[in-house]
Amino acid sequence: MATGLPGTVTTGAPVEVRNLSRRFGEHVVIDGLDLHIEPGEFVALLGASGCGKSTLLRILADLDRDITGDVSVARGRAVGFQAPRLMPWKRVWRNVVLGLPGRPDRERAEAALAEVGLSHRVDVWPKVLSGGEAQRVALARSLVREPDLLLLDEPFSALDALTRLTARGLVDELWQRHRCAVLLVTHDVEEALVLADRVLVMDRGRIAHDARVEIDRPRDLADPALVAMRTDLLARLGVDVKEHA
Amino acid sequence: MSLAPARKPPPTDLAVETETIVPEPESGHQRVPRWVVKAASPVVLVILWQILGSSGVLERDVLAPPSDVFATAVEMAAEGRLSSAILASLGRVALGLVLGIVTATVLATITGLFRRGEDLLDLPVQMLRTVPVIGLIPLLIVWFGIGEEPKVALIGLAVTFPLYMNLFGGIRNVDAALVEASRTLGLGRLDQIRQVILPAALPQALVGLRYALGSAWLALVFGETINTTSGIGYEMNTAREYFQTDVIVVCLVLYALLGLVADLIVRGLERGLLSWRPAFQGQ
Ligand SMILES: Nc1ncnc2c1ncn2[C@@H]1O[C@H](COP(=O)(O)OP(=O)(O)O)[C@@H](O)[C@H]1O
Ligand SMILES: [Mg+2]
Question: Which of A35, A172, A230, B121 suits a disulfide with A17, CB 3.0-4.6 Å?
Fold first, then answer.
């Protein structure tokens, strides 16, 4: 749905944003931002805490229309939040197909859960899932909609380091298979570099840096090209790596 | 670069205080089953009451002993007085409950879901709530006479307010993050209400239902003092005139038992409807 012009159906890139601004009172959080994402492109968005990444993502998810500028977003889109946001009163499989048209389709839910490795959790209540499992259910819930655009707001930041690595691998694998455009907000530079085609850095309400990651997959964290990009990105985020090396 | 923090010298005596963790005995092998423990105190009380009664310390006109109460209950049951009284009272409660539940649900959904509804309706409801329901009896008699209507209306009012408060609170406490998620999943307004907001408000609504049942019984007892010709309250009023404390106690036990059954029903509902919510069970 084109957020600026509700109801108009056009075709175009999954994300096309021009001169977007959002303010909270006097506080201008997004200030004339431009953003373009190609079909099937995996984009990671980095930025200091509080710089407006979630605000941007909420606008793209059509959860916030208090904006100026032009925003056009893929109609078929799914959103993954930092918390899994499952409905505790619905069994896992019903959560997965919640909101899909027609009767709840158990087989479809089972297939999506199998994709994220949770075939044995189809019938349990969300409360009994571990953090990583719940986040995987949320991922299945997003992918079962076969979106053209997947918006993810720090989906792994609440997970422990090991679970995070597994989840990262899973997202990579699912993206290779589904080939939807992804906008992943993260504060983890390595995560961005391992997963994304393009890494953006947000600063002062705009995309301040836009770098293509031209490294073959699967990517190795020790790859010198990747290490160089990492150092550069960390410097842009205000962290001087050499001091810690 | 940075200085290593100064380390404490290692203790010379390496042993520390320890404690042994003893495995908990399996609950099935406990010496006294829980229901025995639960039943103990009421049984002791009844025995004490019987001893005081049959030894004459407690006179019949003050409080009849359990044996008399039991005999009277059997007698009343045989005469059919017991069942007709229960049916009459239950009928009133049921009608009042339906009236109150419908009113509270309609009001709370309007005020809970729509801010305009809250602005229009919540203040008058809150003001009415502060009036003790029992205080409305004279007005209800003036309006509805002394038949069934004022009794049912009283119970209805007593049910409405606690249920309304809890349902409204439950709706307003729904996690906004979940509602937002449901929007991104493509749920329409009606489905958001049906599949997210109302289920999320249900635990609080059931708490409200429990309070509502409590005040329904209270309203029943008061309501049945208004010129009744049937029901538990009628039996009790007649017995009062002849100092039949055994009949009075039978009626009190009836009120208590019915209240207990109602509570069990709500608990059953909670267990059935809220099984998704693993709750602390006590130690
Ligand atoms: N609903 C709101 N009301 C007022 N200020 C907000 C609101 N949401 C976000 N902000 C402010 O906007 C800025 C960006 O927030 P956010 O997008 O959450 O940052 P982050 O990049 O960490 O995700 C912060 O300074 C935050 O205080
Ligand atoms: Mg954020």
Answer: A35
